[in-house]
Amino acid sequence: MKERIITGIIMAILFLIPFYLGSYWFSAFSLILAIIAYYEFTAIIKVRFRIKWFVGLIGVIFLFLPLFSLGIEQIQIKVLIALVLFFITATIFNEEFSIDKAGALLIGVLYIGFGLVSLAEARLDKGLLWTLSILLTIWTTDSGAYFIGRKYGKRKLAPKISPNKTVEGAIGGIVTAIIIGTVLQFILNTFSNYFETLIITIVVSIAGQVGDLVESALKRNFGVKDSGKILPGHGGVLDRLDSWIFVFIGLYIIGLI
């Protein structure tokens, strides 16, 4: 527990400094997180340091380029097309690189790349308080789901994927997020009105929980407990960002970023 708390404090400091500074500082920090998460993801799916691994890494980096340069907003769709063509072609000339691995690697590049690009874009375009409110919603959902599920949880939410998660905990997480979100709106006035606060809070809370289950399913499929060991007591970076990635991709898709 002591190790977990110390790691948590260090993580918070390392994150909050570039998050507060914003601009290129946070974009660069998000890219670093994406690179580490990509490394952990490829370790899970057992793709080693060969040309396909490096092409995937370049893909993640290229997805971030619009955050640092002007006039190249269309590069992301070109990166996507190039990656699809490369990974499909690679399966023809390398029997060990199956279509399953190609698909898994492509999903990882886009999942991690677009997720953390969307996080950085939110900080750039929406500002500190808006993005912080989204993150607080994710954190309060996790806390609410854990404590309410532990006390009142009876019905399993996804027993084959995450046996400890319950329906009661999931609902409790959403309710907790709504309560805290309403209080934050009263104090910070981050969103346009309370109705918008309610809708965004529900979307973020549900998406965050789905994101957590998605990574749990991935790790269970490949027989892995944690995505990495870089954060003592917390696992890997991807373990900490699974909810964030899903949330910010979701917010991007529905046009809030």
From TrEMBL:
<dbReference type="Pfam" id="PF01148">
    <property type="entry name" value="CTP_transf_1"/>
</dbReference>
<feature type="transmembrane region" description="Helical">
    <location>
        <begin position="128"/>
        <end position="148"/>
    </location>
</feature>
<keyword id="KW-0548">Nucleotidyltransferase</keyword>
<feature type="transmembrane region" description="Helical">
    <location>
        <begin position="51"/>
        <end position="69"/>
    </location>
</feature>
<keyword id="KW-0472">Membrane</keyword>
<keyword id="KW-0812">Transmembrane</keyword>
<comment type="pathway">
    <text>Phospholipid metabolism; CDP-diacylglycerol biosynthesis; CDP-diacylglycerol from sn-glycerol 3-phosphate: step 3/3.</text>
</comment>
<dbReference type="GO" id="GO:0004605">
    <property type="term" value="F:phosphatidate cytidylyltransferase activity"/>
</dbReference>
<dbReference type="InterPro" id="IPR000374">
    <property type="entry name" value="PC_trans"/>
</dbReference>
<keyword id="KW-1133">Transmembrane helix</keyword>
<comment type="similarity">
    <text>Belongs to the CDS family.</text>
</comment>
<keyword id="KW-0443">Lipid metabolism</keyword>
<feature type="transmembrane region" description="Helical">
    <location>
        <begin position="6"/>
        <end position="39"/>
    </location>
</feature>
<keyword id="KW-0444">Lipid biosynthesis</keyword>
<keyword id="KW-1208">Phospholipid metabolism</keyword>
<keyword id="KW-1003">Cell membrane</keyword>
<keyword id="KW-0594">Phospholipid biosynthesis</keyword>
<comment type="pathway">
    <text>Lipid metabolism.</text>
</comment>
<keyword id="KW-0808">Transferase</keyword>
<feature type="transmembrane region" description="Helical">
    <location>
        <begin position="169"/>
        <end position="188"/>
    </location>
</feature>
<feature type="transmembrane region" description="Helical">
    <location>
        <begin position="105"/>
        <end position="122"/>
    </location>
</feature>
<protein>
    <recommendedName>
        <fullName>Phosphatidate cytidylyltransferase</fullName>
        <ecNumber>2.7.7.41</ecNumber>
    </recommendedName>
</protein>
<feature type="transmembrane region" description="Helical">
    <location>
        <begin position="75"/>
        <end position="93"/>
    </location>
</feature>
